[in-house]
DNA sequence: TCGACGATCATCT
DNA sequence: GATGATCGTCGAG
C-alpha cells in the first residue's frame, strides 16, 4: 500500500487546464473523502478525459446543457456526479474555464486509508481482491459514499477533495481509448484514458494489457 | 476464465 | 419509448 504523506488539496488552478492534461496529471494523486466521521483515501490509478461540446462521448456533446449536466458548466475544480444504468453513480472533476464543460472521469482507485469502511460500503465481507473495492467508476463512488449529494461540490476543499502526492512518472502511465463509449463514432477511438501501468486496481485491465 | 446478459431508472427523443 | 461514461451473475468451455 502506498505511503500517504501530507495530504494537501490541489489548488483550484490545477483544474484550469484542458481535461486531457488534468486527467494525465491526476494519475497517482489522492482522492480524500470525509464521511460519517471516517477519512477514506484512494490513490487515483485510472482516469478518462471528456472534452466537452466537441466530444461525442461527453454529456456536453454539441453544447448539450440540461438540469442533469449543469455542474459540468461550473468551471474547473467542481465535482460532476451523475447517475447511469439505473443504479450507478460516477464522479468527475470538471476542468477548464467556466462553461467549457470539460471533465475528468475518476475511474479507479487503490485503497490507501479506511479500506475496511470502503469494503463495508461496497458490501464486501472479508479481504477484497485487487480492484474489487474501487476498480471502476461506480465501485469507486459506492466505496466513498459519493452520490447526488456530492454533485457540484468544490474539490479543492471540503469533504471530497483531490490531494497532491507524487504524480505518476512519465513511463508509468498507459494511454488507451476510453471505456464504454463505442457509440461515440470517431471520438470512441481517441486516446483519452490514463492508467497506471500494471496496477491491479485498474478497471478492465485486459484490453489494455500492454 | 470468459463472454453474454439482466437489473433498473433518470433523462432525453 | 429508447438508451446508457456499469457491474454482478450465470452458464459454457
Compute the number of strand runs: 8
* Percentage of residues in helical conformation: 10-25%
Beta-strand content estimate? 25-35%
Could you report the average pLDDT, rounded to the nearest whole number?
A: 91
- Radius of gyration (CA) equals 16 Å
Q: What is the element string, with H for helices and E for strands?
A: HEEEEEHHEEE
Provide the low-confidence segments as ranges: none
Shape: globular
Report the span from N to C terminus.
23 Å
Question: Structural class per helix/strand content?
Answer: alpha+beta
Instruction: Report the sheet with the most strands, covering strand number, pairing sense and barrel closure.
Output: 8 strands, antiparallel
Specify the number of helices: 3
How do you describe this structure in short?
The chain is an alpha+beta fold and 210 residues long. Helices cover 11% and strands 27% of the residues.
Question: What does this entry look like structurally?
Answer:
The chain has 210 residues and is an alpha+beta fold. The protein is built from three helices and eight strands, in the order αβββββααβββ. Strands 1, 2, 3, 4, 5, 6, 7 and 8 form an eight-stranded antiparallel sheet that branches. A hairpin with a 6-residue loop joins strand 4 and strand 5. The two termini are 23 Å apart. The mean pLDDT is 91. The structure holds a DNA duplex (13 and 13 nucleotides).
Amino acid at each position: 500500500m502506498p505511503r500517504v504523506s501530507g495530504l494537501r488539496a490541489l489548488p483550484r488552478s490545477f483544474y484550469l487546464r484542458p481535461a486531457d492534461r488534468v486527467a494525465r496529471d491526476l494519475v497517482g494523486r489522492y482522492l480524500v473523502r470525509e464521511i460519517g466521521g471516517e477519512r477514506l483515501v484512494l490513490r487515483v490509478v485510472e482516469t478518462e478525459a471528456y472534452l466537452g461540446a466537441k466530444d461525442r462521448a461527453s454529456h456536453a456533446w454539441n453544447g448539450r446543457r440540461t438540469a442533469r449536466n449543469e455542474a459540468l458548466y461550473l468551471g474547473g475544480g467542481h465535482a460532476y456526479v451523475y447517475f447511469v444504468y439505473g443504479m450507478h453513480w460516477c464522479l468527475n472533476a470538471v476542468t477548464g474555464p467556466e462553461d467549457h464543460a470539460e471533465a475528468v472521469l475518476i475511474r479507479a482507485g487503490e485503497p490507501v486509508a479506511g479500506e475496511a469502511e470502503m469494503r463495508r460500503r461496497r458490501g464486501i465481507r472479508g479481504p477484497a481482491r485487487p480492484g474489487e473495492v474501487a476498480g471502476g467508476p461506480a465501485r469507486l463512488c459506492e466505496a466513498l459514499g459519493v452520490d447526488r449529494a456530492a454533485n457540484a461540490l468544490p474539490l479543492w476543499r471540503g469533504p471530497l477533495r483531490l490531494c497532491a502526492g507524487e504524480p505518476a512518472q512519465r513511463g508509468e502511465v498507459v494511454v488507451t481509448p476510453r471505456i464504454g463509449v463505442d457509440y461515440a463514432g470517431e471520438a470512441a477511438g481517441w486516446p483519452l484514458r490514463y492508467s497506471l501501468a500494471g496496477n491491479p486496481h485498474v478497471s478492465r485491465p485486459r484490453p489494455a494489457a500492454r
